[in-house]
């Protein structure tokens, strides 16, 4: 009898822990990388994240237009996992001299760590109404040549293919159900 009671207590204890864990997980909600736990600008994320939030949208845009031949170019790379993964790696970590996320933000909202004080502000890639007006060729051209007189540097050392990989990745920021 005695040992049966002990067993029951142990089982109930573990069940209680399990249920507590489930409830805590549900209460905490999705991880911050989805931008839901902290939805306003006042939240300074993990080191290197910058600010979370929706970003400026629509965004005033005075960027110089690419020459016609480049402006009308479509992305020659199809959208697949490899291309998106390569684009993401360059955007978040690898691009030199600085990864794009430092200004454009990990979530693409334009609130990267270095974004404060930049005028005009970095493009908010999550803003569909603004991004819809910018062609693939334009994105390519600005990444390669920068936007003179603004904080947007030229990335001369990226290969054509790498830039198109990034352009594919940039588009995902303004897609539904990302
Ligand atoms: C030092 C800060 C900084 C970094 C790093 C940076 N950007 Fe930008 N970016 C900006 C700013 C500021 C603008 C706004 C320029 C403007 O309004 O003309 C901008 C604008 C853009 C645009 C908009 C072009 C258009 O025609 O509207 C694209 C695309 C872009 N950046 C891509 C990138 C990519 C890709 C990287 C990394 C390879 C990158 N940026 C890195 C600051 C930065």
Summarize this structure briefly.
With 178 residues, this protein is mainly α. Helices cover 43% and strands 0% of the residues.
Mind explaining what this structure looks like?
This protein has 178 residues and is an all-alpha fold. It folds into two domains: 2-30; 68-172, Cytochrome c-like domain (Cytochrome Bc1 Complex, Chain D, domain 2, Orthogonal Bundle), CATH 1.10.760. It is 43% helix and 0% strand. The protein has seven helices and no strands. It has helices spanning 2-28, 68-71, 81-94, 101-104, 128-131, 136-145, 160-172. α3 (81-94) packs across α7 and α6 packs across α7 (160-172). The chain is elongated, with a radius of gyration of 22 Å. Mean pLDDT is 89; it is low at 39-45. It binds heme C (HEC). Heme C (HEC) is lined by residues 61, 63, 95, 98, 100, 102-104, 114, 118, 120, 122-123, 134, 138-139, 142-143, 147, 150-153, 155, 166.
| Largest sheet composition | none
Architecture per CATH nomenclature, i.e. the level-2 architecture of the largest domain: Orthogonal Bundle
At the first level of CATH, the class of the largest domain is: Mainly Alpha
Strand content: under 5%
The N- to C-terminal Cα distance equals: 56 Å
**Class based on secondary structure composition and strand pairing:** mainly alpha
Instruction: Tell me the name of the CATH homologous superfamily of the largest domain.
Output: Cytochrome c-like domain
Bound molecules: heme C
- What is the mean pLDDT? 89
Number of alpha- plus pi-helical segments: 7
CATH fold group of the largest domain: Cytochrome Bc1 Complex, Chain D, domain 2
Rg of Cα set:
22 Å
Q: Helicity level, as a percent range?
A: 40-55%
Q: Characterize the overall form.
A: elongated
């Amino acid at each position: 009898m005695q040992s049966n009671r002990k067993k029951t207590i142990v089982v109930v204890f573990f069940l209680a822990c399990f249920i507590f864990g489930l409830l805590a997980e549900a209460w905490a909600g999705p991880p911050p990388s989805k931008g839901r736990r902290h939805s306003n600008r006042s939240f300074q994320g993990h080191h290197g994240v910058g600010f979370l939030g929706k970003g400026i949208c629509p965004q005033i845009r005075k960027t110089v237009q690419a020459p016609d031949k480049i402006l009308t170019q479509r992305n020659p790379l199809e959208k697949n996992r490899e291309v998106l993964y390569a684009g993401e790696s360059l955007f978040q970590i690898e691009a030199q001299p600085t990864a794009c996320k430092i200004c454009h933000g990990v979530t693409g909202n334009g609130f990267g760590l270095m974004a404060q004080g930049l005028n005009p502000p970095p493009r908010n890639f999550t803003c569909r109404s603004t991004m819809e007006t910018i062609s693939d060729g334009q994105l390519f051209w600005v990444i390669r040549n920068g936007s003179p007189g603004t904080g947007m540097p030229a990335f001369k050392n990226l290969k054509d293919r790498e830039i198109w990989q990034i352009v594919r990745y940039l588009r995902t920021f303004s897609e539904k159900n990302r």
